[in-house]
Amino acid sequence: MTNQQKAEQIKPWINPEERVTVDFTDVRDLNAEVSGCTDNVVHLLFQEAFPHIKERMTVPLRNVHVEEDPFHYTRDPDSPIQSRLRLRIDQKGPEGF
Length: 97
Known about the structure:
Blueprint: H1 3-10, E1 20-23, E2 30-37, E3 41-47, E4 54-60, E5 64-73, E6 83-89
Parallel strand pairs: 1-6
Antiparallel strand pairs: 1-2, 2-3, 3-4, 5-6
């Protein structure tokens, strides 16, 4: 899959009300918010242990594999139920997780 194809699948998930599942090489099943995406990078926000503190991370799309997460679904009760997006990232995750 090209970076452009990955970006096309990720961009609909840029929504502060939705979450995606993220797996890194050292930690799995993290919840993240997609805050932005270009044809080169995806910007993610991870909820820290402290309320209202989020860790930002920018990941090159060349390190990202885009999949569907059949075990989690969208949050919006007014939209049709849809499986959540899963991003598998070929690098270590943020510290503290």
